Amino acid sequence: MHELHISRRDLRDTKLVDVTLAPLADGAARLKLDLFALTSNNITYAAMGEGMLGYWDFFPAPEGFGKVPVWGFATVIESNAPEIAVGARYYGYYPLAETLDVVPKKTATGFIDAAPHRAAKAVLYNIYTDITADPGYDARFEPEQTLFRPLYGTGWWAADCVTQTQTRSVVLSSASSKTALATAHQLRNLGGVEVIGITSPGNEAYVRESGLYHRTVLYSDAPALKVHAPSTFVDFLGRRELTAAVHTALSYGLKRSIIIGVTDWEATRAPPSEPLPGPAPEFFFVPTYAAARLKADPQLGAAMQTDLRKFYPASHAFVDVRRISGADAIQATWARLAAGEIPPREGLVLSF
């Protein structure tokens, strides 16, 4: 069975490894990954793999390497857990590998992986949902679900967060990334704010033609950015120089600065040498924010699921699904993703 091991120091350095599976432990189940997506969100997982978030820790790998997490569907191929049936299919969080062994703790809609090394992680990442009990599942749109389900959730909650700020303008960096597109889509649904996308010259036409942004701005023009105040900056890029430019341009009209992604994984993570104008950037961690909002208003969960299912077909207006299969092709696709060579209109859906 194949696994793709990715260097923690250089995401372009990978090893495709053929592993021999050990006997399955008592109380465990083994799932085979059927379908998954690769987007810049996976680059964020790898770039933020160390430290507080510890995305590398979900799926142990040899020293110096990691198995990047992906979202997708997998089928149980072996089970020593009485409540988990062979042949059952689950949506969830998997390593970039053909198989995953879990220690399932049964829930109403599937199970939680109770493996000890995952106990301290946010429960959102440990949930595996049986497709027969999944309110977000739609058999017509499996590829779209692998691509957008986690990203749309992030964008939906980010838009909810922004609207709590009573802002007039929202500026999104890395505007062509799938999570930024989802965020812009939900902001347009909610209305009442101007949505501005910052992007590169190569992606400018795509961002503009997506119809999700009121205005498109190039990175080089960020220092001269003008928007209606109060404003919010939602950062998916993670490039210190851009953050400084946006803060300086918007100055004290900027009411909130939110960090969500790191699509530029080679950018320095060091804090700025001087304080930025406006609010200090804050990291937006979806599991924590969503849990608090759902506690205050439980109906938001159903609203998000409804909007998610509508988004699957709506995404066809700006993303074309591209199917890729085979271990070698997966390794080559990761190399292209790490090098920033994936056109924004391509939605990469893969299988071993």
Describe this entry's structure for a reader.
This protein has 352 residues and is an alpha/beta fold. The protein has 2 domains: 2-134 and 319-351, Medium-chain alcohol dehydrogenases, catalytic domain (Quinone Oxidoreductase, Chain A, domain 1), CATH 3.90.180.10; 150-289, Rossmann fold (3-Layer(aba) Sandwich), CATH 3.40.50. Helix content is 28%, strand content 27%. It has 8 helices and 18 strands. The protein has helices spanning 40-47, 142-163, 178-190, 204-209, 240-250, 286-296, 299-314, 327-338; strands at residues 2-7, 14-18, 29-38, 65-66, 69-79, 89-95, 99-102, 104-106, 110-113, 127-130, 169-172, 194-199, 215-218, 231-235, 254-259, 282-283, 320-325, 346-351. The strands form 3 sheets. Strands 3, 5, 6, 7, 8, 9, 10, 17 and 18 form a 9-stranded mixed beta sheet that branches. Helix 2 packs across helix 3 (178-190) and helix 2 (142-163) crosses helix 7. The protein is globular, with a radius of gyration of 20 Å. The model has no long low-confidence stretch (mean pLDDT 93). Pfam families: DUF2855 (PF11017). This is DUF2855 domain-containing protein. It comes from Candidatus Viadribacter manganicus. InterPro entries: DUF2855.
